[in-house]
Specification:
alpha/beta; five-stranded parallel sheet; 26 strands; 31% helix; globular; Flavin_mOase-like; Flavin_mOase; NADP
Length: 580
C-alpha cells in the first residue's frame, strides 16, 4: 500500500519502520532538514517547540526506547543530545532516511471520496505540490500550537513568553518572574529561572502528582513500573470496570486462573531466590555504583537532579501529593504526573514562591492574585501546554479535538483504518515512543489487511474513553493522557498478535514472574507475533532486575492482591522507597 507519514520525529520514524516491515511503499514529509522533531535543534529554531538547552529525560532511556532497538545497559537518563543520537542510530540502523523528504511542510490534507488522501506539500523553495496516497499516518505530535489563551494576561505590560520558546535562563538574570503552570518542563524552567532571578513565583490551579526520577537515592524510578503494581492501582483498588483487554481480561474464570497461577509462581520463586542468594548464585538485584542513574555522584543520596534525598524533601513531596488528590487518597492516581522534582529545594529555601489561588486581574506589570496579594513582575512565562489543533485536515473532523474519540487514541472511526494519529497519546508515567510504536504496528497490520478494527468500534471507543476519563478526572483538560502505559500497550499487543498467550506463560514460570513482578520492559512485545526478535527479546525480559529486595516486593504484591481493596494504603509515600 502507498502510505504517507507526516513528521520524522520519534513517532514518525517508528511508523516508517513498522510500515516498511510490512513492505508498504512509504513517503514521509518532514518540515526540518533532518530527523528528530523537537529533539533536533538549529541556531534559528526559536519560533519552534524544541528541547531546551539543559533538558534531561524524565524517564530512563530504557523506557524511551523502541522495542526493536532496545537501549542496552542500565536504566540511565540522558540529555536531549543523547536521545537525538539514539534516534539517529535507529534511523541509520533501519535505513529510514531514504523514505523521508526533508524541508517539506504539509499544508493541507484532503480525504477523497474513494478513501484515498491528497497531501498538499510546500518545499523549501515555496513550491506547492499535491501527492496522493492510499493511507495516512499523522505523526507531527501535539506540540504544535502553544496555549497562550490566558485571558488574565492580556493587560500585562511586561514580556510574555511560552515555555516552547524557552532555551535557557540567561534572559532572566535579576528579573522578577511569574511562571504560570507546573508540569515536567516547567519544573526545570522554574529551577533554572529561580537560580538567577531576583524573584520567582509559580501560579498553579492544581497540584500535579510529583514523582522523583530516582528511588533509593540511586536508581531510575521507572524501574518500579510493574504489571503487578499497575494491576493493584487501577484494577484491584476500584469498583470501576476495567475496559481494556489484557492477559486475563477475557472472562471471570481466566482472570482468577491468571492471578492464582502468577501468585503461586511468585510464592514458589521466593524461597528459590533466597537459596540462590545464600549460595551466591542469584544476581537479580541491581548493584550500587558511585554514580547514580542520572550520571551524578551517588553520595550524597539524591532523588533528582541537584535534589538531595533528605527527609525535608521527601516530606514536602508527600504533602504535595496528598494535596493533589484533595485529601481523597492517591494510591490510584487520577491526575497527570510531574516526573521531575528538581525545583522542590528552591521552594523549601524560598527562591520559589507558590501561588495557589490564581490570578484575579493584571494592571500594567502588577499581578493581583485572588487571595488579595499583589506583586510586580518583569516577565510572565506560560507553562500552559498546547492547544489541540487539527486544522490541517480539510474535511476530516476529530470530535471535540479529543483523541480519546479515536480508537486507541489513533484510528478514526470514519476512515476504515486508513488514517492513524500516531504519538498523540501521553502515558502519565512512561514514554510516548513505545506507545507510538505499538500504534504504528497496529496501523501497519491494518494496511496489510492482516487485522481489522473491531466490529463494535464506537462502543469500544466509548467504553475505553469512560475508563480513561474516570482515572484522569483531576486532569480533565489533558485528553491525551493515559493512566497506565502497560495496560494500553498490552491491549494493543493482544489485537495485533504480539501478546504472549496466557498458556505459554503458564508453561514458562520464570518468564511469567518476570513479566508480572519485575520492571516493565517493552521487549516483551517482540517475543511473539509479527516481526518478532524472539531470542534477543526473551533475554531482555529475563535479565530484568529490581532495585529493591525482589522477594519482599513480590510477597507484598501477592498479599495486596489477596486483601480487599479497603485495607490497601490510602496514599503512596516516598518514605517507603527513598530512604538511604
Amino acid at each position: 500500500m502507498k502510505v504517507c507519514v507526516i513528521g520524522a520525529g520519534p513517532s514518525g520514524l517508528t511508523t516508517i519502520k513498522q510500515l516498511i516491515d510490512e513492505n508498504h511503499e512509504v513517503t514521509c514529509f518532514e518540515k526540518n532538514e533532518d530527523i528528530g522533531g523537537i529533539w533536533y535543534r538549529t541556531p534559528d529554531d526559536k519560533d519552534q517547540m524544541k528541547a531546551y538547552d539543559n533538558l534531561m529525560l524524565t524517564i530512563s532511556m530504557k523506557m524511551m526506547a523502541f522495542s526493536d532497538f532496545m537501549h542496552k545497559g542500565e536504566r540511565t537518563f540522558t540529555d536531549h543530545k543523547g536521545y537525538l543520537k539514539y534516534l539517529q542510530n535507529y534511523c541509520e540502523h533501519y535505513q529510514l532516511k531514504q523514505h523521508i523528504q526533508f524541508n517539506s511542510m504539509v499544508e493541507e490534507i484532503i480525504h477523497q471520496a474513494d478513501g484515498s488522501w491528497s497531501i498538499v506539500v510546500r518545499d523549501s523553495n515555496a513550491h506547492i505540490k499535491t501527492y496522493n496516497f492510499e493511507a495516512l499516518a499523522v505523526c507531527s505530535g501535539p506540540f504544535k500550537k502553544p496555549n497562550r489563551e490566558i485571558p488574565e494576561i492580556k493587560n500585562f505590560s511586561g514580556n510574555v513568553i511560552h515555555s516552547s520558546e524557552y532555551r535557557n535562563n540567561r534572559n532572566f538574570v535579576g528579573k522578577k518572574v511569574l511562571v504560570i503552570g507546573l508540569a515536567e518542563s516547567s519544573a526545570d524552567i522554574l529551577r533554572e529561572i529561580s537560580n538567577v532571578s531576583e524573584s520567582c513565583t509559580v501560579s498553579i490551579r492544581s497540584h500535579t502528582f510529583l514523582l522523583p526520577r530516582l528511588i533509593y537515592g540511586h536508581y531510575a524510578t521507572d524501574s518500579l513500573t510493574t504489571r503487578s503494581h499497575h494491576h493493584e492501582m487501577w484494577i484491584r483498588s476500584t469498583g470501576f470496570k476495567y475496559q481494556l483487554k489484557s492477559f486475563s481480561q477475557d472472562n471471570w474464570f481466566l482472570k482468577k486462573l491468571f492471578i492464582s497461577v502468577v501468585n503461586l509462581y511468585g510464592l514458589l520463586s521466593i524461597p528459590l531466590k533466597l537459596i540462590g542468594k545464600l549460595f551466591g548464585i542469584d544476581h537479580s538485584k541491581k548493584t550500587l555504583s558511585s554514580i547514580n542513574d542520572m550520571g551524578q555522584p551517588a553520595y550524597p543520596s539524591k532523588v533528582d537532579m541537584y535534589t538531595e534525598n533528605t527527609k525535608e524533601v521527601r516530606d514536602f513531596i508527600d504533602r504535595w501529593n496528598k494535596t493533589s488528590h484533595k485529601g481523597a487518597g492517591n494510591w490510584s492516581q487520577k491526575i497527570i504526573f510531574c516526573k521531575n522534582v528538581s525545583f522542590v529545594p528552591n521552594i523549601i529555601n524560598g527562591k520559589i514562591k507558590v501561588q495557589e489561588t490564581g490570578i484575579d486581574y493584571i494592571d500594567g506589570n502588577t499581578v493581583h492574585f485572588k487571595d488579595t496579594t499583589m506583586q510586580a513582575f518583569d516577565t510572565i512565562v506560560l507553562c500552559t501546554g498546547f492547544l489541540k489543533d487539527f486544522s490541517i485536515f480539510k474535511n476530516i473532523e476529530i470530535k471535540d479535538n479529543n483523541v480519546r474519540n479515536l480508537y486507541k487514541h489513533a484510528f478514526h472511526p470514519d476512515c476504515n483504518g486508513r488514517l492513524a494519529m500516531i504519538g498523540f497519546l501521553r502515558p502519565i508515567s512512561g514514554g510516548i515512543p513505545i506507545c507510538a510504536e505499538m500504534q504504528a504496528r497496529y496501523f501497519a497490520q491494518l494496511c496489510s489487511n492482516n487485522i481489522n478494527l473491531p466490529d463494535n468500534l464506537m462502543e469500544r471507543i466509548e467504553k475505553e474513553k469512560q475508563w480513561e476519563e474516570h482515572w484522569m478526572s483531576l486532569s480533565p483538560r489533558h485528553t491525551e493522557s493515559m493512566p497506565s502505559q502497560i495496560m494500553f500497550l498490552d491491549a494493543i499487543a493482544k489485537e495485533i498478535g504480539c501478546h504472549i498467550p496466557m498458556w505459554k506463560l503458564l508453561l514458562h514460570p520464570k518468564l511469567f514472574v518476570k513479566m508480572w513482578f519485575y520492571s516493565f520492559n517493552q521487549a516483551c512485545y517482540r517475543i511473539e507475533g509479527p516481526h518478532s526478535m524472539r531470542e534477543e527479546s526473551m533475554q531482555e525480559v529475563l535479565n530484568e532486575k529490581l532495585p529493591l529486595n525482589d522477594s519482599l516486593f513480590m510477597f507484598a504484591m501477592i498479599v495486596l492482591s489477596l486483601l480487599p481493596s479497603s485495607v490497601h494504603p490510602k496514599n503512596i509515600s516516598l518514605r517507603y522507597v527513598n530512604t538511604d
